[in-house]
Amino acid sequence: MRSEELRERILSFILSGNGSFDELATELFAYQFEHNPSYNRYCKHLGITPKTIKDWHHIPPVPTLAFKFFDLTCQPVEKARFIFISSGTTHGQYMRSRHYIFDERFYEAAASVWFKQHLLPDDAHMAFLILFPSHDELKNSSLAFMLDLLKSRFGSHGSANFVTNGRLLVSELIERLINACNSGEPVCILGTSLAMCELIEECERRRLHFELPHGSRIMDTGGFKGRRKEIPKTELYERYESVLGIPKWNIINEYGMAELSSQFYDGVVGIVSERTFKPPPWVRSIVVDPVTLNEVEDGFVGILRHYDLANFDSVMAIQTDDIAKKCADGFILLGRAGGSEARGCSLLAEEWSAVRGTA
């Protein structure tokens, strides 16, 4: 099958749901096996080809570590439209994952469809107050790209970013919150947990408490990445509600990663949920045993693995270091695994080391 035809079929599947995940996944694996040189060598090293797999479960996953050392692309890197680089700070910028984007339509479609279903199920139209830099300021941030996209597609007049040059514009943001209360117009606040916490603490310091208009909502994402003491999500959401007047069922957490083109949400605005992340129809997420890498049963804890059709020109199967509890229809995110907790992932990394010399 011509790659352009497969490209359009997967885009249609993301936008409309028409198609078969298993069929598209196996065809996408064949495309990536043929056109992604590093991935091709890895699969051959494992003795796996498109002819030997039975379904999407057998597509070889790539450990996130591989994105730090290999250009995992199906096209020459110089043709990439964007390069998304992971935000990890442990080893510096040259040890971060690189995800090359050649056709942003996949990312845009995936981000828009799933965000709308979870944050805008009521088709509400409101200003987006973004506690994160714009994509113009952070060119290699997938989160900045996503938030700018959502602001342009769904945000009303008055939408704006409130982080610039690494600084949260707290006073300007508080003024916007006061204006929202006075006008009665709801707002959607989107940002990292770190920035949200900075806002909440400043409001607490100033003894400010808001009752933002009915329908206001929050999308927070990410953790504190070692920059401050971690605050449990339940406590953080209680403080959001106490300071901003936004009920917990209008506070939704987003989970994403630079190596993926799709995102996950732990609830739908207006619905009290058990905070379970559910993959979109074009993604399959499984929880695997940290030693054997076999899928665990419901209720058990393991390491997350994702199969993302929106990763068209890189690798669709990603083995993460994220710990999760498997649920019937999704997963509950628990944190990051250390080396001893994810020995199976370490073995995958060793397999990559075996082919690294020929990359």
Characterise this structure.
The chain is an alpha/beta fold. The chain folds into 2 domains: 3-75 and 277-356, Luciferase, domain 3 (Roll), CATH 2.30.38.10; 106-265, 3-Layer(aba) Sandwich (Rossmann fold), CATH 3.40.50. It has 10 helices and 15 strands. The strands form 4 sheets. Strands 5-4-8-9-10-11 form a 6-stranded mixed β-sheet, sandwiched between helices. Strands 1, 12, 13, 14 and 15 form a 5-stranded mixed β-sheet that branches. β10 and β11 form a beta hairpin. The protein is globular. The two termini are 27 Å apart.
Structural class: alpha/beta
What is the fold named in CATH at topology level of the largest domain? Rossmann fold
Distance between the termini: 27 Å
- What is the global morphology? globular
Which CATH class of the largest domain is shown?
Alpha Beta
Report the sheet with the most strands, covering strand number, pairing sense and barrel closure.
Answer: 6 strands, mixed
**Assembly status:** single chain
Strand order of the largest sheet: 5-4-8-9-10-11
- Which series of helices and strands comes N to C? HHHEHEEHEHEEEHEHEHEEEEEEH
- Domain count: 2
Q: What is the count of helical runs? A: 10
Task: Assign the CATH architecture of the largest domain.
Answer: 3-Layer(aba) Sandwich
Residue ranges: pLDDT <50 for 5 or more in a row? 340-344
The residue-averaged pLDDT reads: 91
Provide the β-strand percentage band.
15-25%
Radius of gyration: 21 Å
Helix content: 25-40%
The count of β-strands is: 15
